[in-house]
Specification:
heterodimer, A: about 220 residues, 5-stranded antiparallel sheet, B: about 550 residues, mainly alpha, two-stranded antiparallel ribbon, 27 helices
């Protein structure tokens, strides 16, 4: 049973651009360990909703309503202080870093001060995503599925309080998609994180989500 | 932050131009108390208009600037039009790095190649030409400025080609070409109709810079242009450096006349472009699928092939002359000698060192300012507007001689002339716009999701800049720095006027030597000047590659 106030809450949240509201005011709560699938037609504001929660909404947008995470309001917080992990459809691994260094990029410097502690944590993380021995590999030599796993783990290593996923499986073939869904489900459940998953794929929603939030364009 | 940076950059770029223009505006109307001019009048203009050869010099400047720009543009468009062929790709690969070769080095190389006793004449004599002695003709330095036009074309084709190649992906040229070809258009015709219009729009500013340089350049005109009378820009430099100080009034008025000529040239170009656009619309709407495919391809190879060969031979002739011992006409090759390098090693090293330190410092400063300004733009989510671009382009569009003399007068009055830092500031004025323009596309085009991802991992904006953006932009940063080095190494007038003869770079030494008789030393100086930017470009290309690319795995 989750403590009241824990999880991600949206209260009458709406986004508009150039005076046009993207979707009706949205109220919902994603409890810890719960996944909510966000669906809707293209242009309905799904990705913008995730950016708004992460604190990365472009200036051209206007936002109204409340966003809170584990009882604290996120509205006045800088993006880097929100502890909200964001995963895009492209893994966005940094090509100038090795796989291990990409993962270390997610680690908190304060928590993992020593080189040894960082290395041990990276090795454990690589085991968790079945990529043992890949620490020194160049990320551009990985397959699409491997890259997606590294990106997911990098985000989790930052120890976020919530995870936002913007069509993370869209570039994967059906087999890899199924594997990634399983892995994602395991990792999120193990950490008890609330997650919003933007997807066009009904199978993704059915396999992972506890509930579905449908965004319908105002226009 | 953004406003502060905009202020710093505007001050750096606009203030000297404004100050310099004011510094020639007042003397142009007779006011320069230091030289006894205390009353504003039109006497200077009357004297200028009475100057023999003024009209000829002005028309020569206008003609050489416009003709060289038009030819350069036609040459690169021919090369880019239509599908890629093996030969075209090779030509593009060959021409692109030549952008780094300084104007002066190229002009000296061309002079060595084309003069009556030049390498080209030697290679064909006497077996082909029958010449046992050099002919008595004036080329280069011909009265019509043909050698100057040729020199400018050889220099500007690689520049415009590089700018165009960078612009093509931005307008999705390949997709447009594929679309037009799927509608039945032949490759070159498809390119002319679907790609060219947008490309010319993106080339407008670089073309304007090429026109301004063509009309108002000094160094190439001194080496390749006629001398009786020379182009207006060269005439102005002569007046400014005349021991008779009263000629400076004349120089100031002529500097304003040169500025008007540049504006006139830009106006003529714009009107012609407008007319051509109408023709294009008529052609585009006509639905012709083939506008002479074979002729266009053939023309591309016929003009660009010799152009690339000419450039390479010009550089090679610098090499030959710098290592030449005895070299009688019509011998095709000289006796090899290290004499020039050994005798002048100390001087060459000193001016090379000054050139390199100025180039590194100015491009380092320009890079830092550009990164800060672009980072501020990217954080504010506001790309630089037309005003910013105009500020950046100002030092490139206003003729150097039209404002640098005014700046030099102010620097002399405040005792700053001849200082290394004053020359550095003069270099920064021209290096900054090129570095900024080279970097702005890649910087603002960087996938914003990288920064978003890093922020969601809790990284600060500074960490994101240092650990995400700059490493991702390594190739673009190094290329921009190499461009900055190339621009600085090529600068002649800022060094001459702000250095006051005390800061000697390879550029200033080469121009001085070009009017003397020591061809071997001139060749060695020009060669050293050409090698530095080529080396910078080579290093930028090598270090810009990822580890895997360097190992040949990517």
């Amino acid at each position: 049973m989750t403590e009241p106030g824990y999880g991600l809450s949206l209260k009458r949240l709406s986004l508009s651009i150039a005076g046009t509201q993207l979707f009706p005011p949205l109220t919902c709560r994603v409890a810890a360990g719960e996944v909510v699938a966000v669906t809707g037609p293209s242009g309905s504001g799904k990705s913008s909703l995730l950016l708004a929660i992460a604190g990365l909404l472009p200036r051209a947008f206007q936002m109204q309503g409340e966003i809170s995470l584990n009882g604290r309001s996120l509205l006045e917080m800088a993006a880097e202080a929100r502890r909200v992990g964001l995963i895009f459809q492209d893994p966005l691994l940094l090509p100038h870093l090795t796989v291990g260094q990409n993962l270390a990029f997610g680690l908190s410097r304060e928590e993992y001060r020593s080189r040894d502690a960082r290395r041990q944590r990276i090795e454990a993380a690589l085991r968790e995503i079945q990529l043992e021995g890949f620490a020194d590999r160049d990320p551009t030599t990985l397959s699409g599925g491997q890259r997606a796993r590294v990106a997911l783990m990098r985000s989790l290593l930052a120890e976020p309080d919530a995870v936002l996923l913007d069509e993370p499986f869209v570039s994967l073939d059906p087999m890899l998609r199924r594997d990634m869904r399983l892995l994602l489900g395991q990792l999120l459940r193990a950490r008890g994180l609330p997650a919003l998953l933007v997807t066009h794929d009904q199978e993704d929603a059915e396999a992972l989500a506890n509930q579905t939030l449908s965004l319908i364009c105002h226009s | 932050m953004r406003l502060i940076l905009a202020g710093i950059i505007s001050t750096l770029l606009l203030l000297p131009v404004a100050m310099g223009l004011l510094g020639v505006l007042l003397p142009a109307f007779g006011y320069l108390p230091v030289l006894g001019g205390e009353q504003v009048s039109l006497d200077v203009w009357r004297a200028l208009l009475a100057e023999p050869g003024l009209l000829h010099a002005s028309l020569l400047s206008l003609r050489t600037g416009l003709a060289s720009t038009l030819l350069s543009l036609i040459f690169i468009l021919l090369l880019l039009a239509g599908g890629e062929t093996w030969l075209k790709r090779r030509l593009q690969a060959l021409l692109s790095p030549l952008v780094a070769v300084p104007h002066i080095a190229l002009a000296v190389g061309l002079a060595f190649l084309l003069m009556p006793s030049g390498w080209l004449a030697r290679l064909g004599s006497p077996w082909l030409t029958g010449w046992a002695r050099p002919l008595d003709w004036a080329f280069p330095n011909d009265g019509n400025g043909l050698a100057l036009i040729l020199g400018l074309v050889v220099k500007e084709v690689p520049f415009l080609l590089l700018v165009a190649l960078a612009a093509l992906p931005q307008i999705e040229a390949e997709k447009r070409l594929a679309m037009a070809r799927s509608l039945g258009y032949r490759p070159a015709t498809a390119w002319i109709k679907a790609v060219l219009p947008d490309l010319t729009r993106r080339l407008r500013l670089p073309v304007f810079a090429v026109i301004a340089y063509g009309v108002a350049n000094v160094e190439m005109a001194i080496i390749l242009g006629p001398s009786t009378p020379p182009t207006l820009a060269v005439l102005i430099v002569e007046w400014f450096q005349d021991p008779d100080l009263s000629r400076r009034f004349l120089g100031s008025a002529a500097a304003l006349l040169l500025l008007s000529l540049v504006l006139l040239a830009l106006l003529i170009w714009q009107l012609a472009a407008h007319g051509l656009a109408k023709v294009w619309l008529w052609l585009g709407a006509g639905g012709h699928r083939d506008l002479g495919e074979r002729g266009l391809s053939l023309a591309a190879l016929l003009v660009n092939g010799p152009l690339a060969a000419l450039t390479l031979l010009a550089l090679l002739s610098l090499l030959l002359w710098s290592f030449a011992g005895l070299w009688r006409f019509p011998e095709a090759f000289p006796a090899f000698s290290l004499d020039t390098w050994e005798r002048h090693a100390k001087d060459l090293l000193a001016s090379s060192l000054t050139t390199v330190t100025l180039a590194l410092a100015s491009s380092g400063l320009a890079l830092t300012l550009s990164v800060l300004a672009l980072e501020a733009s990217s954080r504010d989510q506001r790309p630089p507007g037309r005003g910013s671009l105009l500020v950046l382009a100002t030092p490139l569009l206003v003729p150097q001689i039209a404002f640098l003399f005014g700046v030099a007068v102010s620097a002399a009055e405040s005792g700053l002339i001849g200082a290394w830092t004053t020359v550095l500031w003069g270099h920064l004025l021209f290096v900054l716009p090129y570095v900024y323009l080279a970097l702005s596309g890649p910087y603002l085009g960087l996938d914003p999701r990288y920064a978003a991802m890093a922020r969601s991992l809790g990284k600060s904006p500074l960490t994101i800049l240092l650990k995400v953006k700059l490493p991702l932009l390594r190739r673009a940063l190094l290329t921009a720095a190499a461009i900055g080095v190339a621009v600085s190494v090529a600068l002649y007038l800022p060094t001459l006027l702000l250095g006051g003869g005390r800061v000697l770079t390879l550029a200033s030494e080469a121009v001085t030597l070009s009017s003397g008789g020591d061809r071997r030393l001139l060749a060695a100086t020009a060669l050293a000047q050409a090698v530095i930017p080529l080396l910078a470009l080579l290093l930028a290309t090598w270090f810009g590659r990822t580890k895997l690319e360097r190992r040949g795995m990517r």
